[in-house]
Amino acid sequence: MKALSEYLDSKIEETIKTLDELVRIPTHVPPGENYEKAVEFMAEKLHELDFDVEMFIMPRELFEKKNPRLVHLKGERVNLSAKLDTGARKTLLINTHLDVVPVSDGWSVPPFECTVRDGHIFGRGVADSKGGPAALLTVLSAMKELGIKPKYNLNIALTTDEEMGPYSGLCYLADLGKLEADYFLSMDGDSDDITIASNGNADWQIDVFGKSYHSGSSFLGVNAIEKSVPVMSELLELKARVEKRRSNVPASSIISRKTGIDTLVPVLNITVINGGVKQNIVPDRCTLKGDRRFIPEEKYDEVCREFSDAISNMKNKNPDIDLEWSCDEIYGPMLTDMEHPWVREVKRVAYEVTGEEMQLAGAQGSLDVAYAVKVTGLPACCFGIGRRTKSNAHANDENISIDDLKMYTKFLGKLICE
Ligand SMILES: [Zn+2]
């Protein structure tokens, strides 16, 4: 094992080269047009390492049915499943996504290649989340060279559309039954905490209807924007009630340090408002949209009922308001038992390579990993390379430190073999 750790340190240039090759494949979504290239790159490497590789293209019809807001996206939704049967008793599922978010102006380096500067590697996706697959390839080839057998059978799922969702390639592989395993490591995360839980997410929409009219005689129309005000007030009352609740799941260390909030919190947001055409036309429609992040202790049905009750309550006070509403679950919440042996194992290995006692934490956001966990029932830990506040994931100059990349490679090596 010591030999493997030392060997991995000497392989850092190889990992950076692999990462560079991955970053050069522009898998940003929208549009997500180059998934096939990234998947083929990984498939070829894993095949050379004796994995059985299979590509799964999500049928267009299914993609559009499950992601009605993404029908404009072009390109095949390609995903990779790679399996290695070592004859072990247990199987480890390792996953992350190969898609990245797009870039905007303002990068100090070319975004679609790796630039090494001041002990850091810059490039779109190095943290979120192409560093993981690059590190994994180094570990697997080092193990092959040293003749070390993994202690698990390996099931590697490299998937796409995580950055768009809701129905990503990982969800598709889960529904195809391709995620069979005993334990689940998601490399999509950061190395500040070990994420074992996440909030669920429901998207809601309310359409308030009015009657358009010449604004000079607005009293002859019905102003949908003005009618939306009591609706929003009611939602803000609900928001206040919802956001007083606390989960038993610890918050991420960054959030607790920054805000003093030390557990997961449910939230209700109004995030979109659309209505009106022109100053002199009474608007006949106002659309409100938002989301509701719910903690693992809450159920989607309850979330929906509570939302419905708030609307009924508002309607009782304002019977003349005409509206339609919906509240759809996007991802369920996720929660892995914090005492599960797999969680303890990941924590132990993370401690050995970082020298730090990692905190178990929940994510305020929602993950496609939660969908996979819901389907498979697997105990899951998310632990990746980037740092939440320093890596600029989803921002300009995304980067990881070379030390973190080395750490992560050793983490994977120890986790898989020791
Ligand atoms: Zn990610």
What does this structure look like?
By secondary structure, this protein is of the alpha/beta class. It folds into two domains: 2-198 and 333-417, Zn peptidases (Aminopeptidase); 201-331, Alpha-Beta Plaits (2-Layer Sandwich), CATH 3.30.70. The chain has twelve helices and 16 strands. The protein has helices at residues 2-9, 12-23, 35-48, 60-66, 126-146, 169-175, 224-242, 253-259, 300-317, 341-354, 368-376, 402-417; strands spanning 52-57, 78-84, 91-97, 115-117, 120-122, 153-159, 183-186, 193-198, 200-209, 267-275, 285-294, 322-331, 334-335, 359-363, 380-382, 399-401. Strands 1-2-6-3-7-15 form a six-stranded mixed beta sheet, sandwiched between helices. It has a four-stranded antiparallel beta sheet with strand order 10-11-9-12. It has a three-stranded antiparallel beta sheet with strand order 4-5-16. Strand 4 and strand 5 (120-122) form a beta hairpin. The chain is elongated and about 80 Å long. The mean pLDDT is 96. The protein binds zinc ion. Zinc ion binds at residues 97, 128-129, 162, 188. The site of zinc ion has 5 residues, from helix 5.
